Amino acid sequence: MKIVIDDKIPFIRGSVERCGEVVYLSAEGITPAAVADADALFVRTRTRIDAPLLDGSRVKFVATATIGLDHINFDYCRRNGIFATNAPGCNAPAVAQYVLASVAALFAKKGETLNPSGLTIGIVGVGHVGKIVERWCRQLGFNVMLNDPPRAEEEGDAAFVGLDEIAAKADIVTFHTPLTREGRYPSWHLAGSGFFANCRRRPIIVNAARGPVTDTAALIRAIDEGTVSRAVIDCWEGEPRISRELLRRADIATPHIAGYSLQGKIRATTICLDFFSRHFGITPPITIPEKAPMEIPDVSSMEQIASSYNPFDDMRLLLDAPDNFENLRDFYRLRNEVVGCRQRECPL
Fold first, then answer.
1. Which one of 13, 201, 239, 326 is the catalytic residue?
2. Among this protein's residues, is 21 annotated catalytic?
3. Which of the following is catalytic: 249, 256, 267, 335?
4. Does 239 qualify as catalytic in the annotation?
5. pLDDT in tens, 121-132
6. 256 an active-site residue?
7. What is the pLDDT of residues 138-182, one digit of tens each?
8. Which fold has domain 92-259+307-330?
9. Which end of the chain is more exposed for a tag (fewer CB within 10 A), N or C?
């Protein structure tokens, strides 16, 4: 068996060598020629899994060590007998940490008192990440509004509201949807000119989902017109060539590292290796020495979250070298997640 692995995936070196020939390559080095005789791939979001890469190869297993999966053409994989998976929920606690620490940092920077009970947060997309953001916000005393049409359709509308209502009533809007362009509920440019036109409370906008969930041009106009008061941008359209206009306007701007925690990376690699072991029937299953908690902590205060991460440190690095966007991600010093006051069962 030949296994090709993105060389920026942490904690994976030395784990699968007993299964066959292992080749570590940069994302740019994962080319059709490099994977033609490979049986399995471990990748990140920078590798497109589709016909141009895999046609003519013998690849039958693909795992991306990420929560995102819009870089994988699942229809193509199904048609060609390729098992493909992501690492669902692996970095959800880190993204939730990023969102709330960023909100806390915005208030602290302006010397404002952050009183959660006086603020309404709209969570758009209530999956792995959104559920943790919801849980922590409720524990902290925010008024919480949820928007998730697929879940509303499946579970009933009682817990969910429309996007227009969130635009009209929320002081903070944070996006946690996958990126989809088709189907009944596409998320591409979900936060577009129509959404911003309905904003009534000059909300803080947070995009820690995928860049194109927010229409960059529309967001810039909304900031310039005062419809949006502040913007926290971790995910950008056109990465790694990001909008300098939005970079100049964003109150917090980071290089797509919201989910880059030490624990999240350990979970991602562990999940991918578990799928690999099961797919190829490898016994004993492949594991790594590093362990991460599979439980989500409770939180007791905004100070607890704010003290765990300062987004302005990462923002300074991006402002100093926006052309180094990809390097800032590849060589990011992984942070630790929030340490909670007690533990509960993990919803991942």
1. 239
2. no
3. 256
4. yes
5. 999 999 999 999
6. yes
7. 999 999 999 999 999 999 889 999 999 999 999 999 999 999 998
8. Rossmann fold (3.40.50)
9. N
